[in-house]
Design goal:
The complex is a heterodimer of chains A (568) and B (218). With 568 residues, chain A is α+β, with helices and mostly antiparallel strands. Among the domains of chain A are: 214 residues, no CATH class; 109 residues, no CATH class. Chain A contains 23 helices and eleven strands. In chain A, the strands form two sheets. Chain A has a nine-stranded mixed sheet with strand order 1-2-3-4-5-6-7-11-10, sandwiched between helices. In chain A, strands 8-9 form a two-stranded antiparallel sheet. The longest helix of chain A has 25 residues. With 218 residues, chain B is α+β, with helices and mostly antiparallel strands. Classes of the chains: A alpha+beta (568), B alpha+beta (218).
């Protein structure tokens, strides 16, 4: 293993927040090996978890119940699956749908028949169901109508489905929501946060989606077999690996990274620390150098397959392809003596590549350095309650100082101009989901959610301008409770450098998609496919091993997709 | 009904905002209600009662006037929530042998989570009492048995005394589990929470979450 540089050269620090936390850069993020689905599978593999399907009661019509069990050293988690017969006209990707092709609950332990009966009465209704604190996660999927039937038909006829069509869609079913953390009466996150296997963020959600993926291909195999028991074959394992779980994500996901500043700081800090560790390496070992070249070739193939209808993303992908060509050429450039090779490459990219290219390079540079960085995946959670209390003993002068230092990006925006606060975030009455409205045109701006961080901190700065600088914040907030949330943000940001997205989240030029893309990249999503400026399709676990081959495959080498799977 | 703690926190956040309090105060209220519920204390009914009184009081100031050791109402009475927040904000200023009296407190139970927080900040046990209730808080939690009997919704006087002793061992942090919440109190909260939702309009329907087609058959 390579060791960080121990010479007298200056240590390369983390990239500064005013670079990292710009929304267009955050919106160019890619999966890294610290992403939550990667970290989840690594842990399961290290701990030798076992996966079984103890129950499969599904009829020839595809309707019934199945249970998948994940058994670890101390605990078992069970995915209880309800497979339905959905009228195709009811199939919608919007979170406001009311019926799905299959619905799921991740249960804490091994469910009894009574548990399954209870879930059968609640899980299919999703948001209208009520759950208990042994239920951890709630989710649902819809079939990709064009692909699912094609796959079943081919397998029933004894042949493999068309690889190009599989590749084109990339999943048999897509989720439209994955709920956890106490929603609808389920277990609070606190209940499982101290279990080692679920200590990182969204681990239970990731386990759920990975098991759902196995259900989707098992169901296709099964339906083919009951349709034509004489001729049916199973889906080829290589083809199967290219099938992930699709996901359609709308605005509802956006506010999370804004509402959890201390947590978001941990995520970014972990990734930036990983990058800095790699940049500080004095040499690239032959192994890591060769692995990086292989990953780059895989990224080139992957970018060639990344095709979306969205014109803006299409432009970015075109730039990325050029970036990857230049990056490949750059590997042959002789480096100056004494230069740290990864750092030199990164610094070159800042001048030479688009944001998509720069951020993909970050992911690719981190990728071959698991031994150096994987511990950071365990540092991406935080007790947010500890960061919450306001220190009212802080003086107004000190508060103004931390705002001046941490929020210069916010203080220079003109929020009085129409474009400065053209939008507002709110919760809609009809499905209780976050939405983004046009302040001038739509009703409800008085019910705005506190996501206008820049504007509100700037307002706090202005409101304190004439206060005695020696006065205590406590006294100011007692008289001005309307500034309380902004004061809390300022104090959190002072202690958590990557807490704030340094852009105006209510400006006319806001691209909400960037918020979603950033969070999804931390999940470990790939194949970002924007469908508008505020919702997108993605893929999760594409090219990852399945539970029934978990110990026969390299567990953690599937980003970017291995080359053999890219052949159409 | 049986609720998760997160449901309580999230319902109280919306309800407090719906009753007209600022987002920053709503955040405090939501964490306080969660803290109380996790300890089987009736934070949700207390909060629902307080929000109704605040709403009925219109523009009246329900914060304390925090001068000296005797806080008095700025308006008709002092909200237990506001008193608690003001107290926790000043936790760094608490003297070793300080004493505080707060007059005319509505829903005094809501003061407790903030006293608990203050006990951690000032690293001294705090004795909080009002007629019918006496509790010791230390290191961020309640010391000794948690149950509190029938609670008054109003305290003519609430006192806090700094106990000049090293921090006492508080009750262990309660296990995170779902808790029983009174249906009536939940409905009262919900009626405030609903005030934060924006009804659909032609414009919002067009924009929505951005999904163009409702039926997706690909």
């Amino acid at each position: 293993m390579a060791t960080p540089d121990s010479s007298n050269e200056e240590t390369i620090g983390l990239r500064p927040p005013d670079v990292v936390m710009k929304l267009d850069r955050l919106g160019a993020a890619h999966q890294t090996r610290l992403s939550f689905l990667r970290a989840t599978l690594r842990r399961l593999h290290q701990e030798n978890w076992r996966f079984t399907c103890p129950r499969w009661d599904i009829g020839a019509d595809g309707v019934g119940v199945a249970v998948y069990a994940a058994e670890g050293p101390d605990r078992t988690y069970s995915l209880v699956c309800f497979s339905h017969d959905l009228d195709p006209t009811m199939r919608t990707d919007r979170v406001i749908a009311e019926a799905w092709d299959a619905t799921f609950t991740l249960f804490d332990g091994v469910p009894s028949n009574e548990d399954i009966e209870r879930l059968a009465a609640n899980t299919p209704g999703q948001e209208t169901g009520r759950f208990l604190d042994r239920d951890l996660i709630l989710s649902r999927v819809n079939r990709s109508a064009r692909l699912f039937e094609h796959v079943v038909e081919c397998l029933a006829a004894g042949r493999q489905p068309d690889a190009a069509r599989l590749q084109d869609v990339g999943y048999l079913m897509r989720t439209t929501a994955v709920y956890g953390n106490g929603k609808f009466g389920m277990a609070d996150r606190d209940r499982t946060a101290d279990r080692p296997e679920l200590a990182g963020p969204f681990r239970a959600e990731m386990l759920t989606v990975w098991l759902i993926r196995a259900f989707t291909t098992d169901l296709a195999d099964y339906l083919a077999a009951v349709r034509a028991p004489e001729t049916a074959v199973k889906l080829d394992r290589g083809l199967r690996r290219g099938i992930g779980v699709g996901n359609a994500t709308g605005l509802g996901l956006g506010p999370f990274i804004v509402n959890h500043p201390a947590l978001f700081d941990r995520w970014i800090t972990a990734r930036e620390t990983a990058l800095a560790r790699v940049r500080n390496l004095k040499d690239a070992t032959p192994e890591t150098g060769a692995k990086f070249a292989e990953l780059l070739a895989r990224a080139v193939a992957d970018a060639a397959r990344w095709q979306v209808p969205d014109p803006l993303q299409t432009k970015k992908i075109a730039a990325l392809r050029k970036d990857l060509t230049r990056l490949t050429e750059q590997l042959n450039v002789e480096r100056a003596p004494g230069e740290r090779p990864w750092d030199a490459l990164y610094r070159w990219s800042e001048q030479a590549l688009s944001l998509e290219g720069q951020e993909l390079l970050v992911s690719l540079m981190i990728e071959p350095h698991g031994e150096l960085v994987d511990d950071l995946a365990d540092e991406m959670a935080i007790d947010e309650a500890a960061a919450f209390p306001i220190d009212g003993s802080m003086t107004i002068g000190a508060l103004r100082e931390i705002i001046k230092n941490g929020y210069s990006w916010a203080l220079k925006t003109n929020y009085r101009a129409g474009a400065g606060q053209a939008r507002f975030w709110y919760v809609s009455d009809n499905k209780l989901e976050p939405r983004l409205g046009e302040r001038a045109k739509e009703p409800g701006r008085e019910l705005e959610l506190p996501l206008a961080i820049g504007r509100d901190v700037a307002a706090l700065y202005e409101a304190t301008a004439k206060e005695n600088t020696d006065g205590l914040l406590a006294g100011f907030l007692l008289a001005h409770p309307e500034h309380r949330h902004a004061a809390r943000r300022a104090q959190i940001a002072a202690a958590h450098p990557y807490a704030e997205i340094q852009d105006n989240l209510i400006g006319a030029d806001l691209l909400p998609l960037n918020l979603l893309r950033c969070k999804l990249a931390f999940f470990g999503a790939t194949r970002f496919d924007p469908k508008s400026d505020r919702w997108l399709r993605i893929n999760m676990f594409q090219d990852a091993p399945f539970p029934d081959e978990f110990y026969d495959q390299p567990p953690d080498d599937w980003f970017p997709a291995p080359l053999e799977s890219s052949a159409p | 009904m049986i609720c998760s703690l997160n449901e309580i926190q999230s319902a109280v956040l919306k309800a407090t905002r719906g009753a007209g309090l600022s987002w920053g105060l709503a955040e405090e209220a939501s964490r306080a209600a969660r803290w109380l519920a996790a300890r089987d204390l009736p934070g949700v009914p207390s909060l629902a009662g307080l929000l109704e009184r605040i709403y009925a009081a219109g523009d009246a100031d329900v914060a304390p006037v925090t001068e000296g050791n005797h806080w008095r109402p700025a308006g008709p009475w002092i909200s237990g929530l506001h008193a608690g927040i003001a107290f926790a904000d000043l936790a760094g200023e608490i003297d070793d042998d300080g004493e505080l009296a707060v007059a005319d407190v509505a829903e005094p139970l809501l003061f407790l989570p903030f006293a608990a927080l203050a006990s951690r900040v000032c690293a001294s046990p705090l004795a909080v009492s009002w007629p019918g209730c006496e509790k010791m808080l230390s290191a961020g939690d309640i010391v000794g048995a948690v149950p509190i009997g029938q609670l008054a919704d109003h305290a003519p006087m609430l006192t806090v005394r700094v106990v000049n002793a090293p921090a006492l061992a508080p009750a262990p942090k309660p296990e995170a589990r779902s808790v029983y919440v009174d249906d009536g109190a939940w409905a009262r909260l919900d009626s405030f929470a609903k005030r934060t939702y924006v009804p659909e309009s032609e414009e919002s329907r067009a924009q929505g979450a951005g999904s163009g087609t409702l039926v997706d058959t690909d």
